[in-house]
Amino acid sequence: INAEYMGGRWQSIGNLMESGWKANVLPLLNRLAQQTAGSHVEEKKYTVAWHFRGAERQLGTNHLRDIRDELMYLTANHQLQVMEGSEVLEISNASVDKGKAASTWLQQQDWGMVMAIGDDHTDEDLFAVLPDSSYTLKVGMATTKARFRVRSIAEARRLVADLTALAKE
Asked: Of 16, 56, 131, 146, which has the maximum CB count within 10 A?
């Protein structure tokens, strides 16, 4: 796994991991996406996600419940985690998360300010590892490890715009 840091250079933050498990998981998720209008599958190098934000909410929730056990069975013999987020289901390597990536990145230098903004369950690992001096911001009203929260993505964008304007003064 690689993370970009200042200067556009890439640094390895994890060993290359086996991704053969995707051959078993992708057909299930692709079938689910075909059955759920407004949903889609996103495949990254080491993760796969089924997004149903654009689907009718109850249909997405019902389909999620229907496949949960099957996914647990398909991923049981691999070092994987099945995570439910905000209208997304993600399957990823259990040894990699945003918190571990951020910890590695933070060790590169002394950052003047650290801010993390997230709206999903997968952001909680990040919020948990950041120093107390960091500004962590949860978008939405779900339980969180973040220090602060806003109600919506639009509100978070306004906050970032306001902070950017202040920094330019």
From this structure: 146
